[in-house]
Each structure stands twice: as C-alpha cells, then as structure tokens.
Specification:
The protein is mainly α. It folds into two domains: about 140 residues, no CATH class; about 80 residues, no CATH class. The chain contains 15 helices and no strands. The longest helix has 30 residues. The N and C termini lie far apart (about 55 Å).
C-alpha cells in the first residue's frame, strides 16, 4: 500500500506496517518531496505515532537543510501526541503513544527552536502551534507577543493557540471582529473552548444566519453547546432540519453534549431516590 492510498484510507484501516512506511520515507532524503511531506503529515496519527517516528519528525524539524514546508509539517505532526500524553499522563505507558522521555525531549526541543530567531518564520509558527498542545509557562508570553506583533500571520497563529492556553478572553473577543476569515474562525473555536460568555451573541448570530460559511457554522455550533449548554437545544434544534448532513450531525452532537451534565444530575437524583 503506497502513501497516496494510505492518505485516502481511514487510519484505523491502515495495515500493520503503515508506520514503518512513513518512517522509511521520512528518513530517505532522496525520496520524492511530496512523498516525504505526506509521510510527515500521516506520521502524527495516533494509530502509528511512537518514539521512533517522533524522533524522525524531530530530526527533520531540527535540520536546516530541509524545506520550511517539511519542517513545519513535522512540527505540526508532533502536536497530537503531545496533547494526548499531557492529558493522560504516563501512569499506564501502554496507552500513551510516546514515552515520557520522548515527550520531554519534544517539549524541550520545540521551546529551544522557537526561541531561535534564526529559525524561519513559517517553521516557528508551526512550532508554537504544535507545542501549545501541551501548555507550558513560556506559552503565555509567546502567544501575547505573536498576537501583538502587527503581523497577521502571527496573529492567526496566536488566536489558534488561544484554544489551548487560558487567559486570553479579551483577545478572543477582539478577534471575533477580525476581517480575516481564518482569524475569525479560530476565535470562534477558542470562544467555545473556554466558554467565553461575552461571545454568546456573536456565536448565536453565526448559527442563526443563513450566510455563515460552513466551517465557521460548524465551529459555532460546537461553541453554542460549550458556552451556554442550557440554551443550546433551543438555538440548535432548527439546524436538525438542514439539507446539509454535516450540519445536522454537528447540531445533534452538540445538543447531546450540552445535555450530558444535566443527565448526570438527574442520574444523581435517581440514585438518591433509590437509596
């Protein structure tokens, strides 16, 4: 099975040797550039990522002779493993794709590279975007500096990172008014993640407007359930009649997620009655 076939195949259906294919392609600097880019993209999937692949991605990221695009792709692919390890810890190593030693190595390397002003801008942006998946103390200042840099690319990176690092509600609200559609989208996602109540009217307007672009609409649907779950059902119910299956599915999932805390409360009350 070649790389292009693997890209078009759901990761849970990849053959057992998929990770080895990615590893060999990443290590072969004579391989086709597009193949190495694709291997770097796919190697970060939870079904295959491990210490060996993580170190291969790190090696590419640290190599100044590699293209900026490939180095950036390698950085981004390290993000999901960082997030999973940071969330679940290492109490049961069998359920974590990378070892704690590799986790620390990735964190240390990303921070070191990010502080190197000689690293190309595109690569540094991807390093920050990947590293915030496992937040550290240095991220607050890095995000703040990126946001206030006056560079729209860095602003976009900063608002993306605000989904993973607390403390930027004011900047998220400000970014909801951005004319840049990408920044606006990331701000909607961040507002939902941190349940920014002051963003409620803006988010509801996006959900109820027929002119909202689809990707923003899907993000706003999730945000509604996150910000005011008690009111989500009344806002989202009309979307269950949409002609777009993705919108219908997103609406039902968001309403189900919004109801979960209340279901738990009712279960607790039922338990009290039974006992």
């Amino acid at each position: 099975m070649d790389l292009k076939t693997l890209k078009d195949t759901p990761p849970w259906e990849w053959p057992e040797g998929a990770g080895q294919i990615f590893l060999e392609t990443l290590r072969d600097d004579r391989a086709d550039k597009s193949d190495r880019l694709l291997a770097a993209e796919l190697a970060g999937d939870f079904t295959v990522i491990n210490d060996e692949l993580a170190h291969a991605l790190l090696s590419i990221l640290c190599n100044g002779d590699e293209s900026e695009k490939l180095r950036g792709k390698a950085a981004i692919s390290l993000g999901p493993a960082l997030e999973y390890a940071d969330t679940d810890g290492f109490d049961d190593p069998d359920y974590v794709p990378i070892s704690e030693q590799t986790f620390r190595k990735i964190q240390d390397t990303l921070q070191k590279l990010y502080t190197d002003a000689g690293i190309p801008k595109e690569v540094r942006r991807r390093i920050l975007e990947a590293s915030v998946r496992a937040p550290q103390d240095w991220h607050q200042d890095a995000i703040r500096d990126a946001y206030s840099s006056g560079d729209e690319d860095w602003e976009l990176t900063a608002v993306f990172c605000m989904q993973f690092v607390r403390g930027f509600d004011d900047q998220i609200l400000e970014s909801l008014d951005s004319k840049n559609p990408d920044i606006h989208y990331e701000a909607v996602c961040a507002a939902g993640t941190w349940e920014v109540d002051a963003a409620w009217s803006h988010i509801v307007a996006l959900v109820t407007s027929e002119e909202t672009e689809k990707s923003v609409l899907l993000a706003a649907i999730d945000a509604v359930a996150g910000i005011r779950p008690q009111e989500a059902g009344a806002i989202l119910v009309d979307l269950t009649d949409s002609d777009d299956e993705d919108v219908v599915e997103a609406a039902y999932e968001a309403m189900a997620m919004a109801e979960e805390p209340w279901d738990d409360e009712y279960d607790d009350e039922d338990d009290k009655l039974l006992h």
